[in-house]
Amino acid sequence: MKSWATAFILALATLAASTANAQNFVEFEADGAVSAKSRYEIPFDSTETDGAFLYIQAMRDWVQAYGGFFYRPERAQWFKFSMGFGMESRQAKIRFAIMAGVEKERLSSFTVYEGQEGGEDWWYKHETTFNIVGPLSAGIISQRHVGTGPLVSFDLPHKFSLSGGIGVGSGVHPVVSLQKKF
Asked: Does residue 151 contact residue 127 with C-beta atoms inside 8 Å?
């Protein structure tokens, strides 16, 4: 099963690499965990209102991958909805993800919810930021296993951005993320 899933992920990654709509992230958590994430979008046509996506996340001893579709209403290009299915390396159960995002003027917001068949091992993340001035944005982050707290994001040259947040749940959990858009 793992060899089939690996071949499928490699085939999708090769297809996705041809797209201009890609984001790569590296996220660092206070407990020393480092996570590399990539999201590729392949629009079905030049309007970019709908298409397919591939999401891959890898850590030292774990990997997950999702494939699915996204939709951006033609009259509300600032809103995007995605839904996909995939698997992770630790379990052979099918997982699903639903994401909704808003990019309107100075406001940026997204929410993602992940779960798996049987309703166990669910996860969520929400970020909302408001552009204060130039490259500086501030907002809120809420993530399962991290908590809820403030978030600051700073745009860097060459389509890089650096963000940091502090989740307060069962303790204080700082999270730092470096993102590159293509």
From this structure: yes
